[in-house]
Write a structure and sequence with these properties.
Length: 222
């Protein structure tokens, strides 16, 4: 009986990303350093954490060429501690947080990459800007003066549902939001190019709907 080699999930997902010109972010929350290093040794360099404390510990222990993304909700009182470790904060979800990140980045004499987290899911527990509120903020606030924050795209999470057409609709909505923001406020910003959407259960739909960064955890850490 022929023995078929086991397909490496990391390799498989990378190939799917390559078809769409997308990047793979490995969600390493709750994972041990040894597990992260297994992926690192396969060439993975972008990892995401939900909690500030976990990200700081892992960034301190693991190779310095790892690019750490904070993908969980960020409280303003934890901004100061995270900006030296996070390569990108994907969860910028309020004007108050935007100002705080800029203030701490200015003091640290660095520029912080961020994504605008926009709420597309129905669950009340999901964080993110209401898109109308975000557009009002961009019209009325002097966000262009916050020069120590580099807005590089959008992030969103779809509803937790078995209705895949509903999930597709939400991802399509986030893609449309990205296009609107690019056209109206970030037309000249070459760095505004990331659409971070899609996780282990729905990333294929996200890629089909325009995602260029997927956040995968359980499929990689089996």
């Amino acid at each position: 009986m022929p023995i078929f080699p086991e397909i490496n999930p990391h390799t498989l997902i990378l190939k799917e990303c390559e078809k769409y010109g997308a990047e793979l972010l490995a969600v390493s929350k709750t994972r041990k350093e040894k597990q992260i290093m297994e992926l690192y040794n396969q060439g993975q360099r972008i990892f995401g954490e939900n909690r500030v404390h976990e990200l700081i510990i892992k960034a301190s222990l693991l190779p310095t060429d790892i690019e750490w993304h904070l993908i969980g909700h960020l409280q303003t009182n934890k901004v100061k501690s995270i900006i030296s470790f996070a390569g990108c904060i994907q969860s910028l979800d309020s004007w108050k947080l935007w100002q705080k990140i800029n203030s701490e980045a200015l003091e640290a004499e660095k520029k912080v990459s961020c994504l605008l987290q926009i709420k597309i899911a129905e669950e009340e527990s999901k964080h993110g800007w209401d898109f109308k509120e975000l557009m009002t903020t961009l019209r009325n606030e002097k966000f262009g003066e916050l020069t120590n924050v580099s807005i590089e795209g959008v992030m969103g999470m779809a509803s937790l549902t078995k209705d895949l057409e509903h999930v597709r609709k939400e991802f399509r909505q986030l893609h449309d939001y990205f296009q609107d923001l690019k056209k109206q406020y970030f037309k000249e910003a070459s760095e505004f190019r990331t659409i971070s959407m899609g996780m282990s259960g729905d990333y294929k739909i996200a890629l089909e709907e325009g995602s260029n960064m997927i956040r995968i955890g359980s499929l990689l850490f089996t």
